[in-house]
Amino acid sequence: MIETSNHLTDSLQKYFGFDHFKGNQEEIVRNVLEGKDTFVIMPTGGGKSLCYQLPALMLDGTALIISPLIALMKNQVDSIRGYSQEDEVAHFLNSSLTRAQMKAVKDDITNGKTKLLYIAPETLTKDENIEFFSNVDISFVAVDEAHCISEWGHDFRPEYRRIRTMIDAIGKDMPIIALTATATPKVQSDIVKNLLMRDEKHFVSSFNRENLYYEVRPKGKKDQVLRSMIQMIKSLPDRSGIIYVQARKSTEEIAQFLNVNGVKALPYHAGLDPKTRTHTQDAFLMEEIDVIVATIAFGMGIDKPDVRFVIHYDIPKSIENYYQETGRAGRDGMEGICLAYYSYKDILRLEKFLRDKPVAEREMGAQLMQEIMAYSETTGCRRRFLLHYFGEDFDDQHCKGMCDSCRHPKERVEVKKEMQQA
Question: What is the pTM of this model?
Fold first, then answer.
């Protein structure tokens, strides 16, 4: 299926109301339309979803979009329906639906009304679903958040490693598009190998988010850190931000402290019931609150373009986690501040969690922590460190003072000594 640029741009305008593609979106869409395997690495906010949504709307049949989270699926389906006249154009199929709802979804697919079906990999394992997909027209399979396939990825999910087996069980020769925002060269090769992608074309966008400012501060006593955070938040004219912490209890305590100090905040963690989590998420998106204080349970699929800051009260357990979470700042292209507090005590705490894990997982976890320690303690350009980690060359002269090392080089040397003593 060879498409002219004019036809693709017309389709983009028709389905999404955009006049032009961003970056290499057009090339990616063309590759998918031609039925070729496609591997996409595009940083958060780069327009990854459109790379499979547009070809799905243009091709005959239904595209299967494999996605890891129910909340993520719901957001995506709502977004697609927002552009379309018919709700049947996009559905999700997962454990949150009743049998009657599942039947209605399948009827829409059978009747050719549904162009995109979002499913969890667990849903795909069921024999009844495999059989159903064997008997309907599937245009292609998109594996979203493809880093979940790799044990070296920051969000490994064992069921993702079974996707290829399930595609084979459907018994059709379907092209695959794998997409992720973060993958080191090692993770990339693991994804391609596991999905048995053939002659796949790689589209790798730069990992450099020029509008993000990176800073790491030594983590002193709790009250000092909280005062430092309040000072920074109140200095910003537009306060919308996320604070990441390790422990659920900390989300409650810090949110309470912010509220007492005139910053509207709510906690978010996996221990809260789904209704509360949804309410908090909506309050943040609708700007009824300024800040969400969250564990890593929050963020995947949250599309709020004007997040002005991301603070890590606790250092994350890997560079990938850090990059993914800081990537939620400044999606509108305006400056975003990424501030992390670091102390070696936090690393020791993370190491404790690894003690009961199998040997291979312990070794992998230890290596990932060494890398986040090296990032936190470096006196060199942080942007260069991050980009080199993802296999991208970068000259720190191009950072233009958008990290603390390049903005205040002399102070960084003193801060490093302070961190190592903390």
Answer: 0.82
